[in-house]
Every structure is written in C-alpha cells, then in structure tokens.
Amino acid sequence: MTLPSVDKDGYLLNLNDWSPEVAKSLAQAENIELTEDHWEIITLVKAFYQEFDLSPTSRALVRYVNQHLGPEKGRSIYLQTLFPPQPALMVSKLAGLPRPANCF
C-alpha cells in the first residue's frame, strides 16, 4: 500500500486520507502491531477529535480514556505500553489526526 502524503513528522496532510489500512501502515513504520487494545484507543481519540476539534494532549488523553474506559486503561503507563514513546503524539498520528498542540 502506498501511504498518502504526510508531513516531516509522519502526520497525514489530509485527514480524509485516513483508513484502517493507512493506520496499519503508519503503525508498521513505527514498529507497532495494532491489536484490539490499540484500536480501542484509536477509536476513542478519533471521537475526542470529533467532540473537541483538536487532538488530545497527554493529560487530556489520559483523562478522556479514564472517563470512557475506566481507571485501568486511563493511566499513562498503559498508554505508554501501547503507543511508545509518547502516547498522545503516536496515537494521534496513527488515528490520522493533526499533531497535538503543545506536545513536543
């Protein structure tokens, strides 16, 4: 599969280019094999974007996951294991969303 156009950091230039296949390709480039746990968070982050029209920063991501999936998954360490090295950046990239503001 040919990846759509991305910026210098690997984020999609056009959000409409996203698909599950694109997510898999982006994840493969980051040495991440997507599981159901990954998809659960990706889906939730896409819902966050729909609700707030922005990608979640680290604290917002943890809080949102905690609210929707409970304290077991709404922890930084859990998200870190799924989306290293920086969960907010990585999950936004794989979800086809813009880079979160204030995340370096």
UniProtKB/TrEMBL annotation:
Pfam assignment, any one: DsrC
Location (main, coarse): cytoplasm
Its EC number(s): 2.8.1.-
Keywords: Cytoplasm, Transferase
Protein's UniProt keywords contain Amino-acid biosynthesis: no
Annotated compartments: Cytoplasm
Keyword Cytoplasm carried by entry: yes
InterPro entries: DsrC-like_C, DsrC-like_dom_sf, DsrC-like_N, DsrC/TusE
Family of this protein: Belongs to the dsrC/tusE family.
Cross-referenced NCBIfam families: dsrC_tusE_dsvC (TIGR03342)
PANTHER family, per database record: SULFURTRANSFERASE TUSE
Annotated function: Part of a sulfur-relay system.
Protein's recorded name: Sulfurtransferase
